């Protein structure tokens, strides 16, 4: 039976909750729906003879009226037995005769009678009248398949204001018949008509209120479905491109690249292929990410072959390493062993393929990790009689690749080899002629006329360097020239070959000519160029290896083994333990940690207590206490205690693996500014070769013109008789080719990105690549979510109020101590918050130190009742008394326990509830003493962060789905003036986009200013908007913003959508992330500036433009300069390792005091401003173009 009653006096959602609770407590009531706007309460009863008067008294008991003149009940009675319209008429005639029936509607289709009754208990007479006519009225409505009850996990509720918001939103939703939201359980129980709505729409309605939904359970408690928003993939708008849906992505390892020209040549060659969609080649990571159309098959093999034809080595990287493994197998003796292993492993469910190699004693296995684990495969091989170990060479190889171990060894060997031959060659060519004895030795001829001993010695010493060490330059240079994509190797090849072959030609000419004059040779130039290039590459790779130290450290954090506890399946007791490789740990394994152990997987502590050093993950050097139910992170280090934990994420699903993957992806991505360097690199080598040829031709012409007029006009670089003019011009040409270096230009951006992202990871700031880095330095406004971002997201005591009538009996502290002692045994979030605050007030560790609690009783969802005896005189004068303490909601204290509350007290509580605070009443010895208001508190660093951002010229905005009053209250506490309340997730996205348009418009408006003012104005205006959030409902806005920042304490979806993930739940890292992106981008610009300046000044100097003033560059010095340029750029990027987080704390201590030199040498880049300065700081340029607050 369904009943609807008018209710007078409801003014807010607290009233709705009171009426709802009163009706739900009535035995026989199955569901309740209270309509605040319509002023009525509807409920369903499980009996047709339900006493409506009981419901009316319940409503009146909580302070509301059901007027006598309007006491009508609309009753729906399910009727069984109707078959035709005659039945309908018969029932209608029977009911009409009953007194009190005002309206009647009998439905044959629905098998029900809907009756509006004026008098109470008339429903019983109606039921009897229908029964007399031969029909049956069911006590309970028949099961209707369309009515479904689900329970939804709701994340983000902190107070009753949140409960009211969700309840109101769902009650207004068509098709929803019943809603019950539990703050304690963080759930929403919803009954709905499946023909009118569905769980997806219901979850969306909850998320529109600003909360996150995770799982939907049916009324049996089984998981019915994940909510759609939790499973969708959010892609930032900047990453959405028009592309063919059939494109395949492949990752290739490309070795042999040395400069930006190498990158440009690979990208240019591959982009010519029609099946290629996009190509991204990273110089430092030696990775190429290629999207292509796999039609016809074998395209990837052709791509790899083309890269190798250009002069580089390429091989395919496994895209999904978690379902593939390489095992080392011991004990095989013949082919029969191989067949036995392959046949036995293939019988295991989930095995896709296995390939065993007898010679290498290894096996390569592909498997479905959702069906079978790696440990199952190893155990299966062991059961077959062989020993198997996981061969984890891939991680070691990757660490070595990042550290440039192979390249460092190769270039070091090449440098030493060239050094051994070049030093004596340099002595013969440059030092020996400086002495008289040396000059005589220089002119000693061999038996062959025209061939001198010193020249012969030089060519013998030069050949191993030119064609031994220099072979790699010739091979790579030849391949790149063959494909029309010259690289740095071509420049080395041309310059060294010119010096060597022209010297060799000079010797040959001297031998075959009739004059047999001693030839002019410069073999030392060729050898020393190669020596300096190899030295430069050696130093460059040493420096490059340092750029990825942070990532290498992260990859090496995982321990090699874990201690697995063996559990008896029948008793559940631990019967032993054994050590296993970390790769074999499975979800659900029980693992033991001894003092000093590295944690092998993510999990939850089952027993024991300890402290854990999580600094390598969070960047915060603080020992974190771990007790039962605490979460532990793989790769962190256990302290002095011993704990047992259950693995929840293993392998590539651990937090450490995800961090490593994120940092890897960031370091191989390109910053947009790198496109500038790539464009220049594409034309650099041909242009340099052209300039070298022009230099040779021009100086040849200059020499002949001036020689014809007056040899005295020739520069000193030319000999007086001019016989060696050819070699002078050739040296100038070689100097031009050698001094020009595209390497410095190509390394400017990727080295800074790699070092910067690594430094960020070490400090708990994960930046997803070069794009976000570049966007971060342009941020001109930061939008903060409220719940969980600016606030802690947990309940804290906000106010303790003692009624004026009882102020003489108890103080506010005493009231808190009593309530805290009473709540010390409670598991409710509100109770824990009160107990925690009472201990803070008393400065004690436990409640037992000042009070004894007896006769404790907890009434679920209502409150507690107990006796409290105070025995500590230091916290309570006159201790020793015993009090009966009640703590609970109004329904429990006032209604159930019948403790009186006056109107003023009721209004005081309602004022708190309007601000979103949760209020609990405290009664002592059956008398109401006061109330405790709890609220979601602001994070302690929030105000300092807002003020620091303001000092940086970045105004802050708060956006929330909460009500206006609560939002304004939080905003005032943190110092934010621009507030947008009641905004849905979609509204947040719209808000962010409108701010982006406004910021961009402000920048565009500067075009009307003169150039110098435009430049100054644009330096202060930044067009990008950053969004800081932690929940699923923030994900669309995070993706839409230019610089999305997610807190790791939030949801995985938020972290996926964001550009930056902060590993600590500390808002100071928001400032640090923006500062780091500014620092990195500033370093990129410095690198690009100096690499450009180097070439702009070095090439003209090498071309001989300053020869009239006596300045030019010898080819050997040009080689040294070329090597130094690359090394200097990498060292410049390594300077980022000195970055430290800006200090956002200690406003007073930073502002003044202390010695003057401390202010010079201590890094405080962004001093927070005082509160009274905020209004001045917020008047940023372009503020007049801001849109007004958006009402969504």
TrEMBL record:
GO molecular function per UniProt: ATP binding; ATP hydrolysis activity; copper ion binding; P-type divalent copper transporter activity; P-type monovalent copper transporter activity
Q: Name one Pfam family in it.
A: E1-E2_ATPase
Q: How does it sit in the membrane?
A: Multi-pass membrane protein
| Matches recorded under CDD domains | HMA, P-type_ATPase_Cu-like
Principal cellular location given in the protein's record: membrane
Q: Which InterPro entries match?
A: ATPase_P-typ_cyto_dom_N (IPR023299), ATPase_P-typ_P_site (IPR018303), ATPase_P-typ_TM_dom_sf (IPR023298), ATPase_P-typ_transduc_dom_A_sf (IPR008250), ATPase_P-type_domA (IPR059000), HAD-like_sf (IPR036412), HAD_sf (IPR023214), Heavy-metal-associated_CS (IPR017969)
NCBIfam families associated with the record = ATPase-IB_hvy, ATPase_P-type, copper ion binding protein
What is the protein's name according to its record? P-type Cu(+) transporter
The source organism is: Bifiguratus adelaidae
UniProt lineage? Eukaryota, Fungi, Fungi incertae sedis, Mucoromycota, Mucoromycotina
């Amino acid at each position: 039976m369904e009943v609807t009653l008018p209710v007078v006096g409801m003014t807010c959602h607290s009233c709705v909750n009171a009426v709802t609770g009163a009706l739900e407590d009535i035995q026989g009531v199955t569901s309740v729906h209270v309509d605040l706007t319509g002023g009525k309460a509807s409920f369903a009863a499980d009996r047709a003879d339900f006493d409506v008067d009981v419901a009316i008294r319940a409503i009146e008991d909580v302070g509301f009226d059901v007027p006598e003149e309007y006491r009508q009940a609309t009753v729906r009675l399910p009727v069984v037995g109707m078959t035709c319209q005659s039945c309908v008429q018969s029932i209608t005639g029977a009911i009409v005769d009953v007194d009190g029936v005002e309206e009647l509607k009998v439905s044959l289709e629905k098998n029900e009678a809907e009756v509006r009754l004026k008098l109470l208990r008339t429903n019983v007479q109606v039921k009897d009248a229908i029964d007399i006519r031969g029909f049956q009225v069911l006590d309970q409505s028949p099961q209707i398949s369309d009515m479904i009850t689900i329970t939804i996990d709701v994340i983000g509720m902190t107070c009753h204001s949140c409960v009211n918001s969700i309840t109101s939103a769902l009650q207004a939703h068509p098709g929803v018949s019943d809603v019950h939201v539990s703050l304690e359980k963080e759930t929403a129980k919803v009954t709905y008509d499946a023909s009118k709505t569905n769980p997806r729409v219901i979850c969306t309605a909850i998320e529109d209120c600003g909360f996150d939904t995770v799982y939907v359970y049916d009324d049996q408690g089984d998981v019915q479905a994940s909510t759609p928003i939790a499973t969708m993939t959010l892609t930032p708008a900047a990453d959405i491109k028009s592309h063919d849906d059939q494109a395949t992505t492949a990752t290739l390892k490309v070795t042999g690249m040395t400069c930006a020209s190498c990158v440009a040549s690979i990208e240019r060659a591959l982009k010519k292929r029609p099946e290629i969609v996009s190509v991204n080649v990273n110089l430092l990571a030696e990775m190429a990410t290629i999207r292509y159309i796999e039609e016809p098959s074998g395209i990837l093999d052709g791509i790899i072959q083309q890269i190798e034809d250009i002069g580089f080595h390429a091989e395919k990287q496994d895209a999904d390493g978690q379902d593939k493994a390489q095992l080392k197998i011991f004990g095989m003796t013949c082919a029969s062993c191989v067949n036995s292993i392959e046949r036995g492993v293939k019988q295991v469910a989930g095995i896709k393929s296995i390939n065993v190699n007898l010679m290498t004693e290894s096996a390569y296995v592909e498997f479905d990790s959702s069906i079978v684990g790696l440990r199952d495969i190893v155990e299966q091989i062991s059961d077959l009689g062989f020993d198997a170990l996981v061969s984890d060479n891939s991680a070691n190889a990757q660490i070595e690749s990042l550290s440039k171990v192979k390249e460092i060894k190769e270039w070091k060997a090449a440098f030493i080899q060239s050094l051994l031959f070049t030093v004596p060659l340099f002595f013969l060519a440059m030092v020996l002629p400086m002495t008289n004895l040396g000059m005589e030795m220089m002119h000693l001829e061999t038996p062959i006329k025209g061939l001198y001993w010193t020249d012969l010695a030089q060519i013998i010493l030069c050949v191993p360097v030119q064609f031994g060490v220099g072979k790699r330059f010739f091979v790579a240079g030849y391949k790149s020239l063959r494909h029309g994509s010259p690289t740095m190797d071509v420049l080395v090849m041309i310059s060294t070959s010119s010096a060597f072959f022209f010297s060799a030609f000079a010797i040959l000419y001297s031998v075959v000519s009739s004059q047999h004059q001693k030839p002019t040779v410069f073999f030392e130039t060729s050898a020393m160029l190669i020596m300096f290039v190899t030295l430069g590459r050696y130093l460059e790779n040493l420096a490059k290896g340092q750029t990825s130290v942070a990532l290498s450290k992260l990859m090496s954090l995982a321990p090699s083994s874990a201690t697995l506890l063996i559990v008896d399946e029948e008793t559940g007791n631990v019967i032993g333990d054994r050590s296993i490789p970390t790769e074999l740990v499975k979800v659900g394994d029980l693992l033991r940690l001894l003092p000093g152990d590295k944690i092998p997987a993510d999990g939850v502590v089952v027993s024991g207590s300890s402290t854990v050093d999580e600094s390598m993950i969070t960047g915060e050097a603080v020992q974190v206490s771990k007790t039962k139910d605490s979460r532990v992170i793989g790769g962190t280090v256990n302290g002095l205690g011993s704990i047992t934990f259950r693995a929840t994420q293993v392998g590539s699903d651990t937090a450490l693996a995800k961090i490593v993957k994120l940092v890897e992806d960031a370091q191989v991505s390109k910053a947009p500014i790198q496109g500038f360097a790539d464009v220049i690199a594409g034309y650099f080598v041909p242009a340099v070769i052209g300039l070298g040829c022009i230099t040779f031709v021009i100086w040849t012409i200059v020499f002949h013109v001036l020689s014809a007029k007056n040899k005295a006009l020739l520069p000193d670089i030319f000999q007086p008789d001019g016989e060696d003019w050819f070699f002078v011009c050739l040296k100038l040409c070689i100097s031009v080719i050698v001094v020009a270096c595209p390497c410095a230009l190509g390394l400017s951006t990727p080295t800074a990105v790699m070092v910067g992202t690594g430094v960020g990871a070490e400090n708990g700031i994960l930046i997803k690549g070069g794009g976000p880095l570049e966007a971060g330095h342009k941020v001109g406004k930061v939008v903060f979510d409220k719940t969980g971002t600016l606030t802690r997201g947990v309940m804290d005591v906000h106010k303790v109020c003692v009624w004026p009538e009882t102020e003489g009996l108890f103080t506010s502290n005493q009231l808190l101590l009593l309530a805290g002692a009473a709540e010390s045994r409670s598991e409710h979030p509100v109770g824990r918050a009160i107990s925690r605050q009472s201990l803070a007030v008393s400065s004690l560790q436990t409640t037992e130190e000042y009070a004894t609690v007896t006769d404790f009783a907890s009434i679920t969802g209502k409150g507690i009742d107990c006796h409290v005896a105070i025995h500590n005189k230091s916290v309570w004068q006159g201790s020793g008394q015993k009090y009966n303490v009640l703590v609970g909601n109004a329904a429990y204290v006032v209604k159930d326990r019948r403790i009186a509350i006056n109107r003023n007290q009721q209004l005081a509580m309602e004022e708190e509830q309007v601000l979103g605070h949760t209020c609990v009443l405290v009664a002592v010895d059956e008398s109401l003493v006061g109330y405790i208001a709890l609220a979601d508190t602001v994070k302690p660093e929030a105000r300092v962060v807002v003020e620091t951002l303001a000092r940086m010229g970045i105004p802050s905005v708060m956006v929330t789905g909460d009500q206006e009053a609560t939002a304004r209250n939080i905003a005032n506490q943190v110092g934010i003036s621009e507030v947008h309340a009641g905004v849905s997730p979609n509204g947040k996205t719209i808000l962010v986009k409108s701010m982006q348009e406004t910021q961009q418009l402000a920048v565009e408006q500067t075009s009307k200013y003169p150039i110098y003012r435009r430049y100054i104005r644009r330096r202060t205006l930044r067009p990008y908007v950053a969004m800081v959030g932690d929940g699923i409902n923030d994900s669309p806005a995070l993706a839409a913003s230019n610089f999305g920042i997610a807190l790791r304490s939030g949801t995985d979806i938020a972290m996926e959508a964001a550009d930056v993930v902060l590993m600590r739940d500390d808002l100071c890292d928001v400032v640090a992330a923006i500062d780091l992106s500014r620092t990195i981008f500033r370093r990129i610009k410095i690198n690009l500036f100096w690499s450009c300046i180097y070439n702009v000044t070095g090439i003209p100097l090498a071309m001989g433009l300053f020869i009239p003033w006596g300045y030019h560059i010898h080819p050997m010095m040009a080689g040294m300069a070329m090597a130094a340029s690359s090394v200097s750029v990498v060292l410049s990027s390594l300077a980022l390792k000195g970055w430290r987080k800006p200090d956002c704390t200690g406003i007073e201590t930073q502002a003044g005091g202390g010695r003057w030199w401390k202010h010079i040498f201590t890094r405080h880049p962004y001093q927070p401003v005082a509160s009274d300065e905020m209004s001045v700081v917020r008047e940023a340029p372009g503020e007049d173009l801001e849109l007004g607050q958006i009402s969504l």
